[in-house]
């Protein structure tokens, strides 16, 4: 028997690590991985709630989130490859061409 | 302390350690491998929560397809380590403080305000059977048929988008 609160706390911690990754790191790929970690933390919370409520809707929603994450990764990595081609770097600090 | 709780705490420790390893590794390849470990641990959590289909989808789609794509791009670009550059000195401590604040806030609100009626959940082996899969499939193809189709269109659009983005322009190729 595990209280659902433990799952929620774990999910919040993983989400926060993802947020910290987006804020602290400068490598665009690692920022992207942190976003995946955040999606994953949210999924964990959804499945935990769906397990408590004994409902399948949560699991189906997580299935959709996984599909959307896969689509997002395909487009995002294509964008990163394009940025690398033109700038020869994936440091997000250097993506400042639009800055006045 | 029951065996379930010990298992949960050990797995939680592994998940958090893997996430921190992802965050702190200098080398992007190590980050990706730590993230794979994190995803597999979360898949085990899904099994504990009685969601076997999601657990398997997690392993095949996340730990398999998505992370292979990541590793492929990291090695393709050869950008596994960035050189040290001048950054704002106050940015990192501020980010950590704000993140801890966010964690405390999110935990407090979710635990006190969004608690569902059933407080305790029992990881149940009988949930991880074909029955679960059958019910999930029935629900997916009846109640959630439209979202399912929309997701298939979304995947198609993403595929076309990725191809168009990485394709060279025709005029550029002639030069």
Describe the structure in your own words.
The complex is a heterodimer of chains A (100) and B (175). With 100 residues, chain A is mainly alpha-helical. Chain A is 78% helix and 2% strand. The longest helix of chain A has 31 residues, at 57-87. Chain A starts with a strand and ends in a 13-residue tail after the last helix. With 175 residues, chain B is an all-alpha fold. Chain B has seven helices and one strand. Chain B is extended and about 55 Å long. At the A-B interface, β1, α1, α2 and α3 of A face α1, α2, α3, α4 and β1 of B.
Question: How is this structure best summarized?
Answer:
The complex is a heterodimer of chains A (100) and B (175). Chain A is an all-alpha fold.
Present the secondary structure layout:
The complex is a heterodimer of chains A (100) and B (175).
Chain A: E1 2-3, H1 4-24, H2 28-53, H3 57-87
Helix pairs in contact in A: 1-2, 2-3
Chain B: H1 3-24, H2 28-48, H3 52-77, H4 91-113, E1 120-121, H5 130-142, H6 145-166, H7 170-174
Helix pairs in contact in B: 1-2, 2-3
Count of β-strands of chain A: 1
| Biggest pleated sheet of chain A | none
Helix content of chain B: over 70%
Task: Indicate the percent of residues in helices of chain A.
Answer: over 70%
User: What overall geometry of chain B do the principal axes of the alpha carbons give?
Assistant: extended
Count of helical regions of chain B: 7
Our measurement of the CA-to-CA distance between the termini of chain A, rounded to an integer number of angstroms, reads: 57 Å
Quickly count the helices of chain A: 3
Given as residue ranges, the uncertain stretches of chain A (5+ residues, pLDDT < 50) are: none
Number of strands of chain B: 1
The greatest interface between two protein chains, and residues involved on each side, is:
A-B, 72 and 80 residues
Mean pLDDT of chain A: 88
């Amino acid at each position: 028997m595990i209280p659902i609160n433990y799952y929620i706390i774990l999910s919040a911690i993983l989400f926060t690590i993802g947020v910290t990754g987006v804020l602290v790191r400068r490598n665009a790929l690692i920022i992207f991985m942190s976003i995946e970690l955040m999606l994953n933390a949210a999924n964990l919370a959804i499945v935990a709630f769906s397990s408590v409520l004994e409902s399948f809707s949560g699991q189906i929603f997580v299935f959709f989130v996984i599909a959307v994450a896969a689509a997002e990764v395909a487009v995002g990595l294509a964008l990163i490859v394009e940025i690398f081609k033109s700038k020869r770097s994936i440091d997000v600090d250097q993506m400042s061409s639009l800055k006045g | 302390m029951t065996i379930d709780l010990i298992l949960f705490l050990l797995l939680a420790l592994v998940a958090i350690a893997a996430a921190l390893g992802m965050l702190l590794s200098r080398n992007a390849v190590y980050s990706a491998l730590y993230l794979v470990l994190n995803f597999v641990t979360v898949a085990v959590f899904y099994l504990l929560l009685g969601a076997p289909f999601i657990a398997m989808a997690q392993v095949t789609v996340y730990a398999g397809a998505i992370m292979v794509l990541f590793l492929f791009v990291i090695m393709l670009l050869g950008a596994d380590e960035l050189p040290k550059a001048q950054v704002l000195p106050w940015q990192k401590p501020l980010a950590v403080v704000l993140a801890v604040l966010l964690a405390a806030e999110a935990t407090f609100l979710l635990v006190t305000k969004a608690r569902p009626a059933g407080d305790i959940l029992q990881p149940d082996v009988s949930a991880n059977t074909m029955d679960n899969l059958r019910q999930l499939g029935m629900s997916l193809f009846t109640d959630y048929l439209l979202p399912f189709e929309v997701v298939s269109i979304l995947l198609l659009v993403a595929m076309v988008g990725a191809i168009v983005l990485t394709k060279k322009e025709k005029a550029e190729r002639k030069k």
